[in-house]
């Protein structure tokens, strides 16, 4: 099935499986997948390493200037790099998850990330996942999906992912982090997490990957009249 050079926005709550679905869409339709959350995680790791964020999540004003010297980019495998370093592993830790939402709520951080996202967007034929892709970054995206799932399912998925990577989190700590991030992400002033009015909602609590992909395929066929 060949589909036009559109932008597909996949937004939603933490650990709803946005990146898994977006990657599958990219593979199936030969699109480029872009993970906007990775950039917010990369900025957070940078702020932590440069000691520009306190233990309680207070971001120093010095981050604004420091960002002008920060090089974050994706390598050919889609892994996030900071200069010559691949930081894909470090940005997925609980330590980064614990501070990413306060960092992502800072307006100049969002501007910095948005600029990068728009550069990618010029290319078209991309599927991007995040919190504000369909509402703020690409409000004209031709297809918007908003993902939800029950808290229990989301927490268990994230817990399993972390354990598979060798971390030893407590399930309760993971639940707490999802709640906190969802709260901060939906209540911040700049580009809060919310469903775009023209987004299709997908609750995948009880769906397999195959069912999800079939759902998206149905959407695309209906919307673009492709058989
Ligand atoms: O994988 P998960 O859904 O847990 O999170 P992520 O996509 O890696 O995003 C990490 C954090 O970055 C989110 O909790 C948001 O605070 C922030 N974010 C954002 O504000 N806007 C986006 N477009 C993407 C992520």
**Relevant CATH superfamily:** P-loop containing nucleotide triphosphate hydrolases
Shape descriptor: globular
- Which small-molecule ligands are present, each listed once? cytidine-5'-diphosphate
Please state the CA-atom Rg, rounded to the nearest Å.
17 Å
Structure, described:
By secondary structure, the protein is α/β, with parallel strands linked by helices. It is about 50% helix and about 15% strand. The chain contains nine helices and eight strands. It has helices at about 20-30, 35-50, 60-65, 95-105, 105-120, 135, 150-165, 170-185, 210-225, and strands at about 5-10, 30-35, 70-75, 80, 85, 125-130, 145-150, 200-205. The strands form two sheets. A five-stranded parallel β-sheet has the order 2-6-1-7-8, sandwiched between helices. The chain has a three-stranded antiparallel β-sheet with strand order 3-4-5, covered by helices on one side. A hairpin with a 2-residue loop joins strand 4 (about 80) and strand 5 (about 85). The longest helix has 17 residues, at about 170-185. The structure holds cytidine-5'-diphosphate. Cytidine-5'-diphosphate (CDP) binds near residues 40 and 181.
Task: Summarize this structure briefly.
With 227 residues, this protein is an alpha/beta fold. The protein has nine helices and eight strands.
Write the layout of secondary structure elements.
Layout: E1 7-12, H1 18-29, E2 32-35, H2 36-49, H3 62-66, E3 72-74, E4 80-82, E5 85-86, H4 94-104, H5 107-121, E6 126-130, H6 133-137, E7 143-148, H7 151-164, H8 171-187, E8 200-203, H9 209-224
Parallel strand pairs: 1-6, 1-7, 2-6, 7-8
Antiparallel strand pairs: 3-4, 4-5
Helix pairs in contact: 1-9, 2-4, 2-5, 4-8, 7-8
The structure holds cytidine-5'-diphosphate.
């Amino acid at each position: 099935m060949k589909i036009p050079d559109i932008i597909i926005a996949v937004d939603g709550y933490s650990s709803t499986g946005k990146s898994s679905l977006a990657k599958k869409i990219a593979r199936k339709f030969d699109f480029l997948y872009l993970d906007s959350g990775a950039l917010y995680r990369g900025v957070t790791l940078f702020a932590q390493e440069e000691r520009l964020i306190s233990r309680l999540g207070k971001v120093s004003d010095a981050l604004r200037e420091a960002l002008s010297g920060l090089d974050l980019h994706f390598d050919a495998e889609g892994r996030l790099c900071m200069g010559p370093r691949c930081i894909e592993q470090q940005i997925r830790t609980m330590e980064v998850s614990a501070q990413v939402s306060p960092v992502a709520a800072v307006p100049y951080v969002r501007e910095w990330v948005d600029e990068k996202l728009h550069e990618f967007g010029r290319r078209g034929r991309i599927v991007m996942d995040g919190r504000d892709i369909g509402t703020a970054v690409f409000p004209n995206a031709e297809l918007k999906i908003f993902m939800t799932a029950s808290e229990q399912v989301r927490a268990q998925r994230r817990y399993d992912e972390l354990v598979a990577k060798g971390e030893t989190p407590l399930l309760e700590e993971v639940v707490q982090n999802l709640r906190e991030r969802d709260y901060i992400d939906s209540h911040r002033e700049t580009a809060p997490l919310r469903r775009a009015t023209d987004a299709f909602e997908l609750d995948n609590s009880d769906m397999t990957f195959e069912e999800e992909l079939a759902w998206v395929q149905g959407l695309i066929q209906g919307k673009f009249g492709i058989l």
